[in-house]
Amino acid sequence: MTDTLHIIGAGLAGSEAAWQAAQAGVPVVLHEMRPKVGTFAHRTGDCAEMVCSNSFRSDDDERNAVGLLHWEMRAAGGLIMQMADRHALPAGGALAVDREAFSAAVTEALRAHPLISFAPGEICELPGEGRWIIATGPLTSGALATSIRAATGAESLAFFDAIAPIVHAETINMDIAWRQSRYDKGETEEDQKAYINCPMDRGQYEAFIDALLSAEKTEFHEGETAGYFDGCLPIEVMAERGRETLRHGPMKPVGLTNPHDPATKSYAVVQLRRDNALGTLYNIVGFQTKMKYGAQTAVFRMIPGLENASFARLGGIHRNTFLNSPTLLDAQMRLRSRPNLRFAGQVTGVEGYVESAAMGLLAGRMAAAEMKGQTLPPPGFETAMGALVNHITGGAEAKSFQPMNVNFGLFPPLEAARGGRKGRKDRYKGYTDRAKEVFSAWLAAQA
């Protein structure tokens, strides 16, 4: 037991942790309850299954914190980024993947590794001995969540995370919709036409908002509160904050010209992003929802171009459990009260696929070093990974701790950075240049 690292959960964080530890020469046993014990959101028993979206968001490593995190994971030999690059789809400046092919490739790579073995089945209690990483994600099973609460002496926090619907491409009316990335972003024509756009005039938009607000919604269970993560708000919740909110969010019309009617500016635009390599499935960007299924079909078919849409998957909502990590975890991502247990991924309070996988990467490397009698410090706070792990293990205010995406607000300020909107691009480039230098030195010290 003490010579082997055990990891609970084969999502993006657990898969990356297993890969990093095994690459460092440490035997790994990966415990995954799926498919024997399923969740409402997952469809398979494969590793690193992406359930909410197929996007890893921006791939700009010079002026975007998410793109910088991509760069750091690639530099560290991350499995998740290797397979994301291998199964990438056109998505303008974003990194989107064929989610089924991506998940299958991650699973194949892990199963082929000589130091990784699989132990199927649910782990219902926190282990009392051995070296473990708990990477069970936002859908941690009820039994294990109860055990975590008992061990930490504190109630887990929770918010609700929603899943966007997926449409069969052949049912989109291209006499109304058109293909274009916002501002024609992308180096190739395929990238510049990576999204399908559905236009709305003012009357259509107002009718759509009315339908959203009056649609039948999923009810919460007694004792639950709707503490949504602001980066993943259901569209109806956004609409409740103001009728123009969606026009300035996922339905903003800027950077798009309708070739069917180029002289008329759309009042709002709904974008769909390719969801598989065949181009047969598209997800509605930013359309997370808690509407009931019947209401979803009726409301979404009000969108011009989707009047006859057939849905491969409708939206859903689920409870997302995470630790109050600033009070519970040390800088090595270990549970302070039981340091043989590390936590990684969304259960630690990071938000997003890339952020979760990055915390798995760190946990796997730190655990492997510890098992070799060494201590691996986290990367400097100037890096994307370092900024994230610092945030969840002490940088955040514990009383108001909420899930967080990576962003430049988590980084130490630059000493000589020009302020204001005009200086933002230079400032962001300064952040990424500094981060790459610090992260490269961190990697070199491990060689």
From TrEMBL:
Keywords: Cytoplasm, FAD, Flavoprotein, Methyltransferase, NAD, NADP, Transferase, tRNA processing. It comes from the Bacteria. The keyword Transmembrane does not apply. It holds the Pfam family GIDA. Its cofactor is FAD. It catalyses: uridine(54) in tRNA + (6R)-5,10-methylene-5,6,7,8-tetrahydrofolate + NADPH + H(+) = 5-methyluridine(54) in tRNA + (6S)-5,6,7,8-tetrahydrofolate + NADP(+); uridine(54) in tRNA + (6R)-5,10-methylene-5,6,7,8-tetrahydrofolate + NADH + H(+) = 5-methyluridine(54) in tRNA + (6S)-5,6,7,8-tetrahydrofolate + NAD(+). The keyword NADP applies. Its EC number is 2.1.1.74. It is found in: Cytoplasm. FAD binds at G9, A10, G11, L12, A13, G14. Residues 5-374 form the MnmG N-terminal domain. Belongs to the MnmG family. TrmFO subfamily. NCBIfam families: gid_trmFO, PRK05335.1. Catalyzes the folate-dependent formation of 5-methyl-uridine at position 54 (M-5-U54) in all tRNAs. NAD-binding protein involved in the addition of a carboxymethylaminomethyl (cmnm) group at the wobble position (U34) of certain tRNAs, forming tRNA-cmnm(5)s(2)U34. This is Methylenetetrahydrofolate--tRNA-(uracil-5-)-methyltransferase TrmFO.
